[in-house]
Amino acid sequence: MKVVFDRQPLASSIGLIQNLVGQVTTMPILTNVLIEAEGDYARISGTDLDSFGQVKLAARVEAPGRITAPARLLADIVKRLPKGEVAMQAKGERMTILCNRNTYQLSTMPADDFPAWPCIQPEVTVRLRQADLKRALHNTMFAVPTRDYRKVLMGMLFDIHDGRLTCVATDGRKLGKTVVDPQEATGETNSIQAIVPDGILREIDRAIGEDGEIELSFTDRQARFQLSNLTYVSNLIDGEYPKYESVIPQSFTRTIRIQKTTLADAVARAALLADRKHHSIVLKFAPGQIEIAAQSFEVGAYEGVIETDYDGEPFKIAFNHNYLQEIFKVAADEVLDMRLNENNAPVVFEVESDPDSLFLVMPVRMSDDEVEVQTGR
To answer: Tens digits of per-residue pLDDT, 42-53?
Structure first.
C-alpha cells in the first residue's frame, strides 16, 4: 500500500475516530485504526466493539491496500508533522510515514485481524438537519449521569413515533427533552425506542455542525449515524427507558418569567453557602421579587433578592443549585419561563425560541433544619 494525504484533512479525520479506540484492552488490535486505500480515497476506521467509526477522505492512492496503525501514536505523529503532503507506505507489518524530511517507521498488526464493519438492516431511518440534532444533543446530554447503576440512564432516548423524533435524557433528578421534525422518515415501522450511549453521542456532537443533513438508522440492537464522509455505528443500551411522559406535568398553577443571567448569578452566590449534603438553596417568591437563601451550618448563611414580575401569593421552593446551574448553561434564551405547581412537584423551564424543548428539575424536599435559613429577623 502507498497513499498520499494532505496533512490537515488527515489529522482532522483521525481526530474524528481516535476517541472510539481503547487505550487499554485485552485485544491489542482494538488500540489500532484500520487504513484502507483504493481508487481516489481512503477510509480510516476505529472501534471498541461497542461503537464503530469510519471516515472517508480524499487521497492519492499509488498502490491500494490496507493496514492498521496505533491510533493514539498515529494521531500524535500526524499532528506534529509540518504542513504538506503525508505519504504512508506499508510492507508486511511495517509502516513508513514520510513528510518533507521527516520519516517514521511503525510496527503494525495484520489488517485481517481488525473487526469487521457492522452491517445494518434498519427498521427505521430518519433524515435530520444537522442543526436540529445538535440542538437536541445540547438540550439533553447535560441530564445524562456520569455514573449510575441503572444502565439505561447512561444514554439518550431516541423515541420515534408517527414521524416525529423525541430526544430525552434524565438522571432521575433533572431531564432534558427536545422534539424534532425529520426531513424524511422511512422504514418498516413508524415507531421505535432506542437508547444510544452517551459516549458516541458526544463524538457525534463534535462532528456535526449547523449546515447539512445527517441520516439516523435504527435496528433493535444498533444505531447508525451517517454523514457524507463519516459514519458512526453504536450498539444500543439494552433495557426499557423510564416513562418520561408521566414525570412532566401537563398543567401548571404558576408561570414566572425570569431573567436567566440575573437568577443564575444569584444562585451562584447562594451556592457558596449551600448545605453540603443536598447542595440546596431556597427560592422564596413574593410579589415583585425572588429571595434566594442558603445556609451551611458549618460556615454561615446567605440571603439575596432579585426583581421579578411575579404577582401571586408568596411561596417557597428548594433546589439542588447544581441542577439549576446546569439548566441555565444549556438554555438558549436570556428569558426563561419557569412553570411550577406545588413545592414538591417537578419544575419545568422553557424558552420562547425553542417551543419544542423543555428542561425539568425535581425540587429538594424542605425541612426547617436542613434548608430553611435562619436570619434572626
So the answer is: 999 999 999 999
Per-residue pLDDT at 26: 83
Measured CA to CA, the distance from residue 342 to residue 321 in angstroms comes to: 19
Residue 313 DSSP label: -
State the cell numbers at 264.
Answer: 443564575
* CA-closest candidate to residue 146, choices 221, 199, 195: 199
Q: How much of the chain exceeds pLDDT 70, in percent?
A: 97
Cell numbers at residue 40, please?
481516489
CA atoms within 13 A on the CB side of 80: 10
Indicate yes or no: pTM above 0.85: yes
pLDDT in tens, 314-348: 999 999 999 999 999 999 999 999 999 999 999 99
Residues in the chain: 377
Tell me how far apart the alpha carbons of residues 279 and 238 are, in angstroms, rounded to a whole number: 33
User: Helix, strand, coil shares of the chain as percentages rounded to 5?
Assistant: 20, 45, 35
Q: How far apart are CA 301 and CA 286, in angstroms?
A: 20
Cα dist. 64→4, 7, 43, 124, 277 in Å?
11, 19, 12, 35, 61
Let me know if 244 is exposed, middle or buried by CB neighbors in 10 A (0-12, 13-18, 19+): middle
Q: What angle do CA 184, 186, 188 make, to 5 degrees?
A: 165
Give the pLDDT confidence of 115-134 residue by residue, as tens digits: 999 999 999 999 999 999 99
What is the average pLDDT score of the chain? Answer: 93
Rounded Cα–Cα distance for residues 312 and 304 (Å): 20
CB 249 within 8 A of CB 341: yes
Would you call 273 helix, strand, or coil by DSSP? Answer: coil
